[in-house]
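Work Package 4 report. The design task specified in the project plan requires that, given a folded chain encoded as structure tokens, an amino acid be chosen for each position. We show below one input record used in the internal validation round.
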């Protein structure tokens, strides 16, 4: 019984332990299932969300692709419209070309028919000429050879008499026109060279941003303007004129230094005596470099190499000097050209002649520093810096103050007078010169059939271009005489004016 009771007790204890363990572990089993269930639900949610995101991304990419495709379609439609338009233009052009080809073919057929007709007429005329020639031989009783010999004999005697009269006539013309030929040499040299001259005065104006700057230019009790005038050697006029300050001096170099210095000071804004002196020194160095550059450029243009540096510097200074409104450096270059061309026409040394003409007025660059006239000063400078006797004598005698010892002196004096006196060289004759050119062109424009008129070679030639459809060759020759007669009747001018009437027909072909 005890054993049975013990067994029953063990069984009951085991069953109770099992029940207790089941009761203790029961929530854990339920928690595990729930976790698995939740994980499955969350995984399903994530999967669905990923599918939604992917679908949205696909829809967004599809919209972008649709937009790009739409844009490409629009571009293609634009290109298609352009191509259609171009194709339409090409078709129209092709039609015009075909029409022209048909017209050309028609004209070619007409020309071929006319050519055949002309050839036929030429054959008929040749036959008629031979018949007339045979009739003349029968009437005269001479053979062809006898008639030719008699005709040649008669022509020979007539030509001998005419040749003798022509020789006498030309001899008289040579004697009578020797002086005219000399004038033509000078005139031709003038016509072959023409240059512009810059007119300058003794006053330069500087624009200022506001009238307040005038007070800074004057400075306290006028110390700035006094320092500026002392450093530059010019007079500065600051008056009530709005927006400008005036710089005046007879020396163009000093005036240019002052003008550029004042512009720099105004731009910088700091105006005081020390700054003024520094700016003037800097500008003076720049102007010195500019003078050397201008002198070298002028010597190169005039064809005068290997000049002394001092001579180049003096010639550069002449760019800032004017004589009767004529820029002296440009005048010297022009005289060099004229002298060289006249010398070459006379068979002389053109290079030496250009050197004489280029340096003839060099004394004007130093006449305010040395005593005497500019010819003597120039001759002394040229001799001092190693120039030859011809160049020295040309500078000394180009105003006919002494008896010329070299032909180059005579040519330099003639070129100097031509440069100073030619139309348009100096201010007082410039307006009259321009008005004369305008009058020449207006007279020619008054004739019917004239398309264009150009007055060239300082008014010594008028070129008239006429409409070839309205004016034929005989009418063009008559028009030249009529225009020349009208110029003689209506105008006063030096020398002579040549009228050239040009009539030309142009044919244009295009190869494609």
């Amino acid at each position: 019984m005890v054993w049975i009771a013990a067994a029953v007790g063990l069984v009951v204890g085991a069953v109770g332990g099992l029940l207790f363990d089941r009761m203790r572990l029961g929530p854990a089993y339920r928690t595990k299932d729930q976790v698995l269930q939740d994980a499955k639900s969350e995984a399903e949610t994530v999967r669905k969300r990923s599918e939604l995101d992917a679908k949205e991304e696909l829809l967004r990419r599809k919209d972008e692709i649709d937009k790009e495709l739409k844009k490409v379609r629009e571009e293609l439609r634009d290109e298609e419209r352009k191509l259609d338009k171009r194709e339409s233009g090409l078709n129209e052009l092709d039609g015009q070309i075909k029409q022209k080809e048909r017209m050309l073919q028609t004209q070619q057929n007409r020309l071929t028919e006319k050519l055949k007709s002309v050839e036929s007429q030429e054959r008929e005329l040749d036959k008629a000429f031979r018949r007339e020639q045979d009739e003349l031989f029968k009437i005269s009783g001479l053979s062809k050879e006898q008639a030719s010999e008699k005709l040649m004999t008669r022509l020979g005697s007539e030509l001998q008499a005419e040749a003798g009269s022509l020789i006498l006539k030309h001899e008289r013309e040579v004697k009578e026109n020797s002086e005219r030929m000399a004038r033509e040499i000078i005139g031709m040299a003038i016509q072959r060279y023409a240059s512009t001259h810059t007119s300058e005065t003794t006053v330069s104006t500087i624009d200022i941003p506001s009238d307040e700057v005038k007070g800074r230019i004057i400075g306290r009790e006028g110390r700035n303007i006094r320092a500026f005038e002392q450093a530059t050697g010019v007079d500065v006029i600051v008056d009530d004129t709005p927006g400008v300050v005036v710089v005046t001096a007879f020396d163009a170099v000093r005036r240019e230094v002052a003008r550029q210095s004042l512009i720099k000071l105004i731009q910088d804004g700091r105006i005081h005596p020390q700054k003024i002196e520094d700016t003037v020194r800097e500008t003076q160095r720049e102007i010195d470099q500019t003078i050397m550059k201008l002198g070298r450029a002028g010597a190169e243009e005039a064809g005068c190499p290997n000049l002394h540096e001092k001579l180049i510097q003096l010639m550069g200074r002449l760019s800032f000097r004017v004589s009767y409104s004529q820029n002296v450096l440009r005048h010297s270059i022009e005289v060099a050209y004229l002298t060289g061309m006249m010398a070459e026409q006379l068979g002389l040394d053109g290079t030496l002649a250009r050197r004489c003409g280029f340096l003839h007025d060099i004394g004007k660059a130093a006449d305010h520093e040395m005593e005497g006239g500019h010819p003597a000063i120039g001759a002394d400078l040229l001799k001092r810096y190693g120039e030859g006797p011809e160049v020295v004598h040309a500078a000394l005698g180009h105003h006919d103050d002494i008896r010329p010892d070299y032909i180059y002196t005579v040519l330099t004096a003639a070129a100097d007078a031509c440069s100073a006196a030619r139309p348009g060289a100096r201010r007082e004759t410039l307006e009259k010169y321009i008005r004369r050119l305008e009058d020449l062109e207006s007279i020619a424009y008054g004739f019917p059939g004239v398309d264009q008129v150009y007055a060239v070679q300082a008014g010594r030639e008028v070129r008239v271009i006429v409409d070839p459809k309205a004016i034929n060759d005989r009418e063009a020759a008559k028009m030249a005489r009529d225009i020349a007669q009208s110029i003689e009747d209506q105008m006063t001018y030096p020398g002579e004016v040549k009228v050239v009437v040009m009539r030309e027909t142009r044919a244009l072909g295009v190869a494609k």
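Residues 429-502 form a domain with the Alpha-Beta Plaits fold (CATH 3.30.70.1350). Validation will be extended to a larger panel in the next phase.
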